[in-house]
Amino acid sequence: MHVHTPLDIGLVNDIFQNTEEKNQMANKIIPLALAGAAALLSQLSFAHVGGKANAGYVGDASGHLVTDGRGECVRTNAWTKDLALSECEHGMAPKKAAAVPETTPTPVAVVPAPVLPTPIPEPVLESVTLKAGALFDSGKAELKPAGRAELDELVAKLKSHQNIESIKVTGHTDSQGAAAYNQKLSEQRAAAVKTNLVQNGIDEKVISTVGAGDAQPIASNATAASRAQNRRVQLEIKTQQQVVR
Question: pTM value?
Answer without folding.
Answer: 0.50
